[in-house]
Amino acid sequence: MIDSRCVRYLPRILALAWMLTPLLFPVSAEAQACSNVVTADVVALDQPWAWNRYGAMEPQGMIYALRHDVVPASHNPKDPGECYAGTLKAGEVKLREDKRPRPLVLRVNAGDCLRVEFENLLAPTPADEEQPHTRAASFHIVGLELRNVIADAGANVGQNGPAGNGIVDPGDSIVYEFYAAHEGTFVVHSMGAPVGGEGDAGSIGTGLFGAVTVEPAGAEWYRSQVTEAILESTRTDDLTSYPVIDYAERYTAAEDCLRQGLPKLRMLDSLTQEIAHSDLTAIITGRDGGDFSAPYPRSTDVYPNRREPFREFTIIFHDEIAAVQAFPQFYDDELEFTLHSARDAFAINYGTGGIGAEILANRLGVGPVHECAECLYEEFFLSSWAVGDPSMVVDIPANAPCDFDTLDPDPATGIEPCEPDQGPKATMALYPDDPSNVYHSYLNDHVKFRNLHAGSDDHHVFHLHAHQWMRSPLDPDSTYLDSQAIGQGSAFTYEIAYEGSGNRNKTVGDSIFHCHFYPHFAQGMWSLWRVHDVLELGTELDGEGRPALGSRALPDGEIDAGTPIPGLVPIPNQPMPVLPAPVQIVAGEVDIIDDIDKLREALKAGDRDWIFPGYPFFIPGISGHRPPHPPLDTLDDGGLARHVVSGPGLATHHETRLDFSKHLVSMPVEPRDEAGEPVEKLAMEFHHNPTGYQQPLPNGSPTLKTFALNKAKAVSGAPYADPCVTDAGAPINDLRTYKAANIQLDIVLNKSGWHFPQQRIITLLEDVQPTLNGTRTPEPFFFRAHSGQCIEFQSTNLVPDEYELDDFQVRTPTDILGQHIHLVKFDVTSSDGGGNGFNYEDGTFSPEEVQRRIAAIRTYNGCDDGSTDSEPSFECPEARPHPTFGSGPDVNCNGLPDYLGAQTTV
Asked: Which pLDDT band, with edges at 50, 70 and 90, does 199 fall under?
């Protein structure tokens, strides 16, 4: 029986449904006039790939690509630009050797139409048992308006028969047309095999997805990062100073036969209106490389100079990736369950960096962390100093000689699980224009993130450190965000506030972004945004593809020549950063060629070029090891001065289903001046520049615009980018200081007596003892401050250096704690509360870790054998009581006071 109330409201319900129909099903735009028609020649193909440098693989990979980036399977890998005769055949093709497998990104301007000429080059039968049995494919864009017929949807729905559903078998082709009504980004995937397999995702689970991004009306698109060779080939100057770039330069047959006649930097061929490049990153400008004009939104307080060009980062989340894991321990009967939540399982743009493989690599003595005794557990897995940049692909992975057949062999074969050879193996990073999941920009570059979810099983929360955006960027009163929930098939654009790169306080360095569900984060769903402060024209390579002797490259704990820096193309109408001081990599380590003191003198004298090495070369880390704490950071060091581990050490460790503990025994260290090493002082002086630097444009013309930097002097917690300064450069002196400590206690959670024996919380210093002895109820810690005030947070760590085994977690090292906060401004190198990318390790050691490090240093230096001075020194340190808490009790009964060596940092 139908409720009479339903009948009463039925006309209204039907009227509302009719109104919503255009929103649910994009209306055909056949009547719309296209300002232009952009063409993309796209194929689908089987393409295995490596997820990272540790050996995780995707043998079942399936991708989209532009036709001119695909070659016959027999093509010579030593000459990616070699021409070939004949046609491409389904199942007999591969991606060019010099192009990294990445999700395809097509671009079209608002008001234009997109014509996709699609051919299915998938093998007629599955190339791997993890691939869908159905080999038909299509190019389905979620949410973009269809241009002509329902077959443009590429979906087998309703009564659309084989001739009208837009899905084609291997070897067949079809043309789709779409209308781009407004700016935004849209998920692309195939509806040929939409279900089945991992996460019931069909071909999405094996990588057959991408994006179409609609740019502002009339926009031009340029490549953002290229190789050093390509960027140099576009220069029209004499190569001795600032580049003068021809953004319209095209390939010759001698340079690249397959790309002959295509533009090198322009992503759309202006002669044919065909898409030439499908990069994840791009520079988006107005006409002739200039600013945008109306109707592009006007500037606001949060978005000043809004109509300037911007860089674009396409960030596609995907999950349930079914990767072949790097090490046999992931398939071990005893460890499989323990390691399940730390495997490589969540990804960004066909790259992943799960914590499990990095910890196992360290314990097995392989990869860049093969000799890192102080790499204990969670604290190092995001540090590029220790593990290299995320999702980097190398010539010889860390798990060699393990391969697909020996990682998890069928017992019936009689093959034993492999054991990786110890020590370093990789000799070069591949794909120098796209070597890792690091996305690059220059300080002051405007930036938009295009975030899409092409996964199948989980929702995610995109979170970006040190930068923010407005929920509704056209509304000045909109919510200010640095996190966004995102579900399958959906997409968001994040227009970064305050001129993008570096935020309002112009912070240089690595800003991590990741899924805020920590299990997804720890299983690989994270990447880095690297903001540069000097001109990066790319790493010059030798004939084998390695950084040439004396060239500028990144330090690496495994690769002696270092890893390549992409050539970061300057935005056409923006002032370029300064030219960097010469840097080279020697045995994996940074070597600043010129004398630092002379460079500082030249900077003070007004010189700007070839004076400052730039980020990350002023961070005095040692590759393959954890980086030092920031300068000016430590108020009380507990007897352990600022330092960095300088070579192989010794440690005991366990890898069982209940215990992943690790303890230092012996380690060598080098001192790092708390006030800053000379190169750090050079960086402080460079970044303290109230007027910025008057720099030329990429066309060689002078400009009144400046390359802006932070205007404040170095302070604790912000040596390079103090947030306590106005846009005009005046200091903000309204400072609020919080002095707090991290403690551990057994907290009762309800009247039934449920309790957490190892709860870690923050409390004010004066509340520590009352909270521990039960006279004060434990409660969450709140910062409170007025808008416009600054906060200095002084953190003391009184927490044990291990989390003991309980019903939920294995015994785990917890040697350091950081303090990360959302939505406020800070120096990302030094106050992020972590050790991300090539930043410092911003945190406070546990007093027990201070004791262990001191003991290991003393053992290495022979301090207790009677051969050295008995007085405390850097070589033979001694732990000190904390000025507030003294030495504390000995709760764990190990014979050492629990607070001896406690540190306080800013």
From this structure: low
